Backbone:
């Protein structure tokens, strides 16, 4: 009986469906294991959109035919990219709307009934036709002296790069009289509230994660901020502040990353520090089917750490303005991670936020407002 000859497309699909044939190094580079020999091939997806492979089939046929040629390794990597695009359904965080009476809980006969004016802003009032009662709801900002718009504007100004004092001065131009200490208390309150809510929504991150450290000052003393980031979406998964660089226990960082992402990576990329490898061995490595740890990185070539250096640059720019943190578990760091993931669009992600790339979309013109409202409502429920 003659064995059927498979086409390149069929061979590529078999490779793509095999569990350990393809290793994704970063968003444009793959290593594909040979089906017949103990070697791997490098497949590159160039920014121009073309694909390259160093296998003989691609090299010879591309030269002979003087045209675009796809070997089975390129086909397999293209299939993997298509599969990654068909990820689980997005989580959409919508602005909170009042749909039921707070007294009789009727959701059929609720009408807008003007606004309630006070010193700091207007709040929508509602009339329940069933129980004939009126009410106003200020979700997330109950008993706050200032309007939600003033508070979310302060959050945006501060995490966009302004100091606490400059943020307070800018708010005065909008008619919001507030001290820089009050701005800090807003950041402290709402960063903790949003972090508790958002960390329960698993981001759809890739199988390749990166970790790195950057030094910063806490009350004038040198500390190290360790950050864990997804390679594909640039989602800042978790962080930890430690006293030392080479001896800090990083297992809690990796453990927290697994909890937040609801998975563990197939590849972890770090520098050569021994404490990264020790934490990886304890938390990620298992015999036969564990995470691969890549420790040899450089600023150019296939395995580099440019993305982590960009995140470190964001943190360094923020630190120059605030000069020092007051406590290791500072609300400033929590707010920075929320701003990086859910609010700030990234040029490298074509104007999207890391959260959007990871399947979490925040709706509304004021994303801070949407996040605070949903976090407050979920906490009450």
Residues:
């Amino acid at each position: 009986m003659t064995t059927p000859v498979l086409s390149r497309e069929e061979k590529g699909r078999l490779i793509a469906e095999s569990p350990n044939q393809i290793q994704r190094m970063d968003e444009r580079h793959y290593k594909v294991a040979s089906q017949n020999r103990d070697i791997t091939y490098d497949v590159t997806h160039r920014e121009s959109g073309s694909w390259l492979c160093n296998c003989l089939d691609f090299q010879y046929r591309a030269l002979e035919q003087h045209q675009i040629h796809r070997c089975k390794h390129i086909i397999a990597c293209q299939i993997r990219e298509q599969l990654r695009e068909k990820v689980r359904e997005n989580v959409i965080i919508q602005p909170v709307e009042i749909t039921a009476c707070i007294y009789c809980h009727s959701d059929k006969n609720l009408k807008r009934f003007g606004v309630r004016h006070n010193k700091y802003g207007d709040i929508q009032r509602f009339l329940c036709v069933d129980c004939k009662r009126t009410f106003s709801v200020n979700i997330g900002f109950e008993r706050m002296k200032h309007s939600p718009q003033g508070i979310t504007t302060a959050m945006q100004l501060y995490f966009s790069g302004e100091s606490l004092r400059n943020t307070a001065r800018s708010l005065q131009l909008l008619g919001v009289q507030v001290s820089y200490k009050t701005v800090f208390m807003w950041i402290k309150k709402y960063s903790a509230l949003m972090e508790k809510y958002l960390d329960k929504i698993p981001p759809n991150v890739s199988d390749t994660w990166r970790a790195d450290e950057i030094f910063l000052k806490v009350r004038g003393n040198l500390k190290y901020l360790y950050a864990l980031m997804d390679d594909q979406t640039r989602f800042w998964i978790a962080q930890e502040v430690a006293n030392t660089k080479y001896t800090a226990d990083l297992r809690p960082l990796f453990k927290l990353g697994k909890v937040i992402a609801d998975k563990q990576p197939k590849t972890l990329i770090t520098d050569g520090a021994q404490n990264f490898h020790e934490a990886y061995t304890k938390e990620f490595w298992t015999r036969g089917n564990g995470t691969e740890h890549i420790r040899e990185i450089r600023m150019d070539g296939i395995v580099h750490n440019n993305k982590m250096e960009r995140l470190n640059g964001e943190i360094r720019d923020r630190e120059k303005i605030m000069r020092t943190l007051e406590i290791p578990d500072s609300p400033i760091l929590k707010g920075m991670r929320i701003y990086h993931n859910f609010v700030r669009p990234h040029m490298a992600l074509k104007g999207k936020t890391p959260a959007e790339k990871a399947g979490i979309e925040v709706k509304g013109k004021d994303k801070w407002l949407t996040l605070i409202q949903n976090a407050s409502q979920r906490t009450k429920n």
Q: What stands out?
A: Residues 180-198 form the longest helix (19 residues). Residues 127 and 271 are 61 Å apart (CA to CA).
